[in-house]
Amino acid sequence: MSVRPAALISHPYGKPVLAALLLLPFVYLVFCVTMDRLGPNPAEALIRSSGDWTLRMLCLTLAVTPARVLSGWHALARYRRMVGLFTAFYALIHALSYLMFDMEFVWAAVGADLVKRPFIAVGMLAFTLLAVLAGTSTTSAVRLLGAMRWQRLHRAVYGIAGLALLHFFWMRSGKQDFAEVAVYGLVLGTLLGWRAVRFKRK
Amino acid sequence: MAFTPRDRGYSHKVPSDITPQSTYRSRRTLLTAMAAGSAGAILAGWAARDARAQMARPGLRAGLAAPLSSLAGATVLEPPTSIQDATSYNNFYEFGPDKSDPARGAVSMRTSPWAVDVEGLVRKPGRFGLDDLLKMAPLEERIYRLRCVEGWSMVIPWIGYSLQELIRRVEPLGSARFVEFVSQSDRSVMPGLRPGALEFPYREALRLDEAMNPLAMLVFGMYGEVLPNQNGAPVRLVVPWKYGYKSGKSLIRIRFVEHEPVTSWVRLAPQEYGFYGNVNPLVDHPRWSQATERRIGEGGLFAKRRKTLMFNGYEPQVGQMYAGLDLKKYY
Questions:
Q1: B287, B292, B302: best mutation site toward chain A, by most A Cβ within 10 Å?
Q2: Is A36 close to B289, i.e. CB distance below 8 A?
Q3: ipTM score for this prediction
Q4: pTM of the predicted structure, to 2 decimals
Q5: Which residues of A touch B98 (CB under 8 A)?
Q6: What does the pLDDT look like over A32-67, one tens digit per residue?
Q7: How far is A103 from chain B (nearest CA, A)?
Q8: What is the DSSP code string of chain A?
């Protein structure tokens, strides 16, 4: 039996199935929180894990278009928004975990932390931009802004990728532990580099 | 006063009226406090003993039981961290940067035979085998707070004795002003010994008077058993009023020197990690606040952070050593 990928991608169940898959890390985190399975420092584990998943979702979001162009499966385009919204969703969990468990919602402490830790400021900026993109992800927002302006706005995701990587790099620089940073750097660099090359050729 | 004696042969007020109320009240308060204080000290011992007795002994390692220390400040009453957490959430960079790395990797470290070279400005230098060290002074159990510079803390029942027991035996010369502690570094079992980050072997140091403070402890065990490898087996330092990085693990050399040694963390990031490393809620790390800490195992995810205590709560025992020292400058 042979299944054509293009047919799978166009299948009406495609979106709900992918949504369920992308929700699995969240389900796992909820399971860990409720069953006290986050290890000795649960707050730290939750903050780091949600950050890791945000980065992974971001890579996936940025991989949709290259995959579509390189494979010729143009139906992939209809998944792009959903994957992007999942990135924003995991970023929201990441930011909320930080505010709740690290800062205990003491806003003065958050303000001091933004100044003291540049990587927090960078992360906050990336999250804010991501929230703007999520907020303008609806079809009506595209209509309202006009396709050109909407697209220009949503190119901010490239900047977000850079900020997210810088945030992760700075976080790990305390221990000079850059192995994972290098992996994400390579993936994001490839995905953005592909776009740069394509843009030049046009 | 409603009560008046009818006939006592002479007119006299009741004793409680002769002594002013404020005086006998305060005397009673004092007596109550004294009774509670002495009882408290005994009860404190019992409570601490109970706290440990209630912990599940994993029985994974050889037992190393010791009586509870009677040293002032050496047995905090906060509940000890679970041994599971204390042995799985560690910083031991020789085995990798992640806190779960040491528990996985340190099992391959050989801790027998083991010897510690004591050298430098001492009258009686020498190489001490682990057995010599274990017999050098009576072992005792102390329950110390442990505060990591990263902002988390534990409470751990250590077994060992005051470092000064060893220092006295090797008789430091008058010129010795600092003590340096060098940790094991063995490429064959320590994947974390990569170039570019911390310099290994790991080096830490104390001023001689700090090292002589009775709270500074040479440790061989925890939770009633010999030290697990990830916690610094077979012998380590524990300096409870300083951030954890000051307490070197798996020691192989103790050197007495005249000048302040450049320790591993100071060499890597002098603006972030000072020679002193005293726990101080008022002096922040350049990249984060030190005002509060997360107590590992306390209430899970939703537990409130604790306020960090000056000198980790050991100010009565160690504060005088730093009188007049600018703690913002000498962090």
A1: B287
A2: no
A3: 0.82
A4: 0.83
A5: 177
A6: 999 989 999 999 999 999 999 999 999 999 999 999
A7: 9
A8: ----HHHHHHSTTHHHHHHHHHHHHHHHHHHHHHTT-S-S-HHHHHHHHHHHHHHHHHHHHHHHHHHHHHH--GGGGGGHHHHHHHHHHHHHHHHHHIIIIISTT-HHHHHHHHHH-HHHHHHHHHHHHHHHHHHT-SHHHHHHH-HHHHHHHHTHHHHHHHHHHHHHHHHHHTTT--HHHHHHHHHHHHHHHHHHHHHHH-
